[in-house]
Amino acid sequence: ASCLSYAAMKRGIPCNVVMPRTAPQAKKDTVRRFGGVITECEPSTSSREATFAEVQAATGGDFVHPYNDPRVIAGQGTCAREFMEQTDGLDAVVAPIGGGGMISGTCLTLATLAPKTQIIAAEPEQADDAYRSFKAGHIIADDAPKTIADGLLVPLKDLTWHFVSNHVSEIYTASEQEIVEAMKLTWKHLRVVMEPSSAVPLATVLKNPEAFKGKRVSLIITGGNVDLDRLPWLNAA
Fold first, then answer.
1. pTM
2. 128: domain range?
3. Which of 12, 80, 121, 228: CA 20 to 30 A from 137?
4. Does 236 fall in a domain?
5. Tens digit of each residue's pLDDT (9 = 90 or more) over 165-184
6. Which of 15, 33, 64 is the last residue of a domain?
7. What strands lie across the sheet with 217-219, from one edge to the other?
8. Which of 64, 85, 117 is the last residue of a domain?
């Protein structure tokens, strides 16, 4: 949402963004700073899609899906592209998965530039529809899963399922506590501000050490949208 708002601002284009009312205030503030106009919805896929339709009908705008859109997938493929420019010989790249935009972009890049590199997706246990879809061989969609990793609440769609089903080697999941601990570990030792969704890949690597032992692994950190007065380890204290 913030990237879309930034791109629209740079081009002088109005940008209307539909966001769950439960989204972090930090994320909302960034969208507004870049000129985006937010319409809030309930934290469910059905509410989000219904609100999308209302906003598009009212504005006549070009609908940019947050992940099931070739433009978004191509843009998110630049993360893995930068990995390949900075290093070589990666055995695996781990990225978070919700709707699948980031993992699809990762697949798009690595399948072309580094086909021997494993592509692994990481997902919260409490929003594991991608994991269940991967194992079942077809999309299984949850309407309103609940997890601290708010950026990973949405289900796979047709475009992203294509990449996941054809190029992802494995999907690992992590519990809420494991996600929080990975987030806290990174803040404490690397001084990297990451949101819970960004900590899911690290959580899954720490949970499955044998799967990554002796390998060169890169993790994609997808964002730092976290409200500093609502850090999860403070709320749990």
1. 0.90
2. 71-225
3. 80
4. no
5. 999 999 999 999 999 999 99
6. 64
7. 170-174, 118-124, 92-96, 217-219
8. 64
